[in-house]
Model the fold of this input.
Amino acid sequence: MAQPLSFFDQVIRNFDKAAALIDEPAGLLDQIKHINCLIHFTFPIKRDDGLIEVVHAWRSEHSQHCLPTKGGLRYAVSVNEDEVSALAALMTYKCAIVNVPFGGAKGGVQIDARRYSVDELERITRRFTFELFRKNFIGPALDVPAPDFATGPREMAWIADTYATLAPHDIDALACVTAKPVAQGGIDGRVEATGRGVFFALREVCGIAEDMNALGLEPGLEGKRVVVQGLGNVGYHAAKFITEEGGAVLVGAVEFEGAIAKPDGIDVEALMAHRRETGSILGFPGATDLPRREAGLEIECDILIPAALENAITMENAPRLRTRIVAEAANGPTSSEASDHLFQRGVMVLPDAYTNAGGVTVSYFEWLKNLSHVRFGRMEKRFEEHSNRQILEAVEQATGRRFEPEEVRAIVHGADEIDLVNSGLEQTMIEAFHEIRELKHQLGPEVDLRTASMVGAIRKVATAYKDRGIFP
Ligand code: NAD
Done:
């Protein structure tokens, strides 16, 4: 039996499919496809009991056509050279798809974070940062990490602090990493940005009547039945916004410990509270526990959101999925063959490099904020409010109608950082989807959204190389 393709091989397969539709020299396409540089290193850490353990870590910079390179840092036992290579390549295409001017990168430490104390995780994170620094693999102009599986603002704050200690004269030191806590130079809205981006994407996609009719669905996100796999940062926020703001119904949830189904809808906050209290999503009042975790992906729904890790959907289970849309919130959740199979069956697969790009989009905003050393909205908020108030008063005088206090508040309100971040994110996700959709229409009905998005991304990277030329 043929060996299944590795994660990076699958990305290459997707690349080759798209590259076949692009009229660029083979050498240039080759340069775009390959990893520019990759480091693997080991370092010792002291466990709390005094024992020494050797940790394996990687950082991959896939494309330096734009600098800095950008990409998350993952703590998982699955981390290896192939995984960080695949994830770094996806970052290049992701940034190009949402027009964020970064190259792609990814880092990983091969540990199960649940087996380490907070002190141990801090030592691992700081030593990892030190190793990156020594090797010129971190810096605001070079390579900027962000969170991924099992890392978050806490780890990003340790990275920023370690980098600032090592580079005391770098006035832009805070821009060496994104998704920091807001008090440490982070930006409002970054924690939830990826999940919010998934929501903006789905709201836009479901709003197009022609496409929904082709899938046999009513237009609009409201009332759509959704299943989410992985209720971590991305999955939880996606589920929250899609149900609370989009009116969709969460009919199933899948986590490490199992899967549950509840056709009349799961209250996301209640489920999270239940998991905090009991350590499990199982036993949630009113829901049915499924016999196998994997069965959760096969619950009948309109939208399936895999938001855990890669290879959740393969040829093994793809034929049993009962959904009309797969929104890839995780990176690489659908194997390349399974993605083709779903496309043949008429299922819409919203590709990862687009669907989860909200995180890097808001990371870009945070990087800009750090470089400008000022919070978004700080300079203009009061000025805007003053101008809006004057316009309102002029309208009141001209019409003789007095606005209600609620209306005044809504109209006068000057933008805070969170307003600007969410508005920039919304615009980015909407614009990028229409770019992909338009391209898909140009390429023809046999081309899926993933290939169309890759064609667009590769063309943008190729243009960067052609405009700048090749050194020396
Ligand atoms: P996370 O660690 O916050 O959450 C992952 C969740 O998935 C955890 O709750 C974990 O228990 C669960 N999980 C793990 N294995 C599972 C399984 N087999 N079945 C069901 N649930 C399982 O990680 P995250 O940051 O939410 O990242 C999730 C995915 O989204 C990854 O593929 C990551 O690369 C991608 N992503 C994350 C971001 C971000 O901003 N954090 C941005 C873009 C893409």
Notes: The chain has a mean pLDDT of 97. The longest helix spans residues 417-443. The CA atoms of residues 103 and 353 lie 13 Å apart.
